[in-house]
TrEMBL record:
It comes from Nonomuraea mangrovi. This is Competence protein CoiA family protein. It comes from the Bacteria. Pfam families: CoiA_nuc. Transmembrane segments: none annotated. Residues 251-293 have a biased composition (Basic and acidic residues). Residues 234-293 are annotated as: Disordered. Residues 74-159 form the Competence protein CoiA nuclease-like domain. InterPro entries: CoiA_nuc. Residues 236-250 have a biased composition (Polar residues).
């Protein structure tokens, strides 16, 4: 899809112009029989004249086009923005040519504005796709090599290169064909002398900005380093810009404010230098007085130091003796605690051994099968026992998992319930075992599930 095509006899024609730029009526190329042999100026493939649902005239590629043709892959939003730019340029009294290539192919302008008075040219680029700062600088430099100014225009939400090159951000109109309602919301600033900084200007019609740029009413200005915090309208929010479009008046106001700041800083520096010298003289006098006082105190300090060293040596010896005693007591305490821990482990292991002696392998298998069936009902996933049966972390019970998630612990030993991470679900054979578990007060009864399985040889638990 493009707005230009090559006529076999007349050369380049432009669908945005009433006479196609060559004194032709649209009907002379639209649905004619036999069909005019139009070609794409970018890839040379055959194209034909078409109308969009909104009656926008353009040229569409015939089937079989090259996938590398840039004109063919441009979006509808891109084409609409080019149309709006062309209309704004023409309203400003300049001629507008779309999709203009460089003679050497180094660039292709979306819309080339040409002054009817002196032939000056300004390229307008609709940039909606992502592009790096390096690439957009490279394209801008190519225009500069041919003495052509350029302004980049984008309707994207975030434009990281907005201040890297001459550019503005626009808000599309609704409908997009209403060119007069396209607004510039970022890329314009004015200098507020009273505020001492730049203020963003928003909601300016795109057509007005185009007219100002072409009429040299706006300049793309590199903002001074200390003024790059830009105040946003309607509040205290700010953004940072290193360059932006503005008027010469604002540029002069920035220079005036900077000169005022430099005068203030020079006066401040002079005052600070005077104060520094006065302070240095005062300090010199004070240092001489202090030297005399220090000499008098030095002798007194030497004697106090000697007495203090004697006292400190006594204190050091006392502290060392206390530290040795504390270390001995701590070692003894640690030894007693380790013995107590080993005894608790032994008692828990003995209790666990007795606890598991009360259930046979068949009864354990029966219990795990009931747990697996319950897990299928609750989670549609079968609970499987951990290979580390009866580990201390799970109170010498059997941990069962649904996938990688702990589903619960089967028959944890009542004497070791304090080792379970709470809350942990517990599964036992019957109400008798549940009573033994909950009687410890360490597990909430709601977390204990039993299956009313018979005691059989579990009578040793009574």
């Amino acid at each position: 899809m493009s707005f230009t095509a090559l006529h076999p006899e007349l050369g380049r024609i432009d669908a945005t112009l009433t006479d196609l730029g060559q004194g032709l009526a649209w009907e002379s190329v639209y649905r004619t029989r036999p069909r005019i042999g139009l070609t794409c100026p970018e890839c040379g493939h055959d194209v034909h004249a078409k109308l969009s649902p909104r009656r926008t005239r353009y040229f569409a590629h015939d089937p079989g086009r090259s996938p590398q043709c840039q004109l063919a892959v441009e979006s509808a939003d891109h084409h609409q923005l080019k149309l709006v730019l062309a209309e704004a340029i023409r309203r400003a009294g300049w001629s507008a040519d779309l999709e203009v290539p460089a003679p050497d192919g180094s660039w292709r302008a979306d819309v080339m504005a040409t002054s009817v008075a002196d032939g000056d040219r300004v390229a307008w680029e609709a940039q909606l796709s992502p592009i790096t700062d390096d690439d957009i600088h490279m394209h801008t430099d190519r225009y500069a090599d041919d003495n052509i100014d350029v302004c980049w225009v984008s309707s994207r939400d975030r434009i990281p290169w907005l201040c890297a090159v001459p550019a503005v951000a626009v808000t599309p109109a609704d409908p997009p064909t209403a060119a007069e309602r396209w607004m510039v919301h970022d890329g314009l600033v004015r200098f507020d002398y009273a505020r001492g900084g730049w203020v963003q200007v928003d909601d300016v019609p795109l057509a007005t900005v185009v007219r100002w740029v072409l009429g040299h009413g706006l300049t793309f200005h590199s903002i001074g380093r200390r003024y790059r915090r830009i105040h946003l309208p309607g509040g205290n929010a700010t953004t940072r810009r290193s360059a932006s479009w503005t008027t010469q008046r604002s540029i002069d106001t920035e220079a005036k404010h900077e000169a005022m700041r430099q005068r203030q800083e020079a006066a401040k520096s002079a005052r600070e230098e005077h104060a520094r010298r006065a302070e240095e003289h005062r300090k010199q006098v004070e240092r001489e007085r202090q030297c005399q006082e220090q000499e008098r105190r030095r002798a007194e300090a030497a004697e106090r130091h000697r007495l203090l060293m004697i006292e400190l040596e006594c204190q050091r010896a006392t502290r060392e003796a206390q530290c040795r005693e504390q270390e001995r007591q701590q070692q003894e305490k640690a030894r007693q605690e380790e013995l107590a821990r080993l005894e608790r482990d032994r008692q828990e292991q003995a209790a666990a051994h007795q606890w598991w002696n009360g259930v046979s392998a068949a009864q354990l298998t029966e219990l795990i099968d009931h747990v697996a069936a319950l897990s299928m009902t609750e989670h549609a996933s079968r609970a499987l026992p951990s290979p580390d049966e009866g580990d201390r972390e799970h109170a010498y019970g059997i941990a069962v998992y649904t996938g990688r998630r702990l589903y619960g612990v089967v028959r944890p030993c009542p004497q070791s319930l304090g080792r379970l991470h709470t809350p942990t679900r517990v599964f036992v054979r019957n109400a008798h075992e549940k009573a033994l578990i909950t009687a410890t007060g360490l597990i909430d009864a709601d977390l204990v599930t039993h299956f009313d399985l018979p005691d059989h040889e579990q009578t040793t638990l009574l």
